[in-house]
Amino acid sequence: MWLILAFCSAALLGFYDVCKKKALLDNAVLPVLFLNTVICSLIFIPFIVLSLGTSVLDGTAFYVEPSTWAEHKYIILKACIVLSSWVFGYFAMKHLPITIVGPINATRPVMVLVGAMLVFGERLNVWQWIGVLLAIVSFFLLSRSGKKEGVNFSHNRWIFFLVAAAILGAVSGLYDKYLMAPPANGGVGLSRMVVQSWYNIYQLCLMGVTMFAIWYPTRKKTTPFKWRWSIILISVFLSIADFVYFYALSLPGAMISIVSMVRRGSVVVSFFCGAMIFKEKNLTSKLVDMLFVILGMVFLYIGSH
């Protein structure tokens, strides 16, 4: 069941990336990100209120358990990590083809595995090492394809933004494992709804400060903000994808390494939408690059199963 949910989350993430690209075309980045945090918070505030003030959600998958300030400190750190990843990722998505962004984002499970090896002392087997090497090869192939569109990986700051977003996303995945692991296993033992609900609220607070301290005073000197309905769809697809993801992780036997890998299958949706909707170029060479990414994910799956 948790594997099916992981595939559902992957599809939703693909549509999330497409809506994000659509919303960011010739648009101001920070207001789009701010509105994303606003809408995500509005989705989860009713669950928090109903859980704290009534018994309507008791025993359901949407119940938000009461939590202490000590636990909220962990969630605030989660919000800082995710929001930092989003800021880098949104700027990269605006300035780079989605057919490059998707495959690079799909290498996050490799970073999660390497992080698990360094932080949790896990050891990679032969299959996993092959998957890591294939992911590295795919990155160099993507750099070759990018040069055809004037995207030089070694001198393009948006590529560095994208890599920073991917690294922070991998850190967030490892931190999720720590947050939701039982205390007996060395984790914090938080429920998925507590994490997802409150980190959205804290992101809104952080993004609100960023908006009015950085963007608002300089808004007339930068790219103007344009309202698009795809901004709402960003939040809807992301919230459902994350809910399904956290729910999958909470099920018995769920493996964070496999769930993370399957979620990166979103690259298939974003790639073909990039081809059909955004009419991006050099699709044949990028398709080969993406296949290397997927092949790497298959080897990681085999090695982690």
UniProtKB/TrEMBL annotation:
Organism the protein comes from: Leyella stercorea DSM 18206
Domain of life: Bacteria
Descriptive protein name: Putative membrane protein
Record's keyword annotation contains Amino-acid biosynthesis: no
TM annotation in the entry: 29-53, 74-93, 126-146, 158-178, 198-217, 229-248, 287-304
Keyword list, A-Z: Membrane, Transmembrane, Transmembrane helix
Higher taxonomy: Bacteria, Pseudomonadati, Bacteroidota, Bacteroidia, Bacteroidales
Transmembrane helix found in the keyword field: yes
Pfam families: EamA (PF00892)
InterPro entries per record: EamA_dom, EmrE-like
One GO cellular component, as annotated: membrane
Alphabetized SUPFAM superfamilies for the sequence: Multidrug resistance efflux transporter EmrE
Residue ranges occupied by any EamA domain in the UniProt entry: 2-143
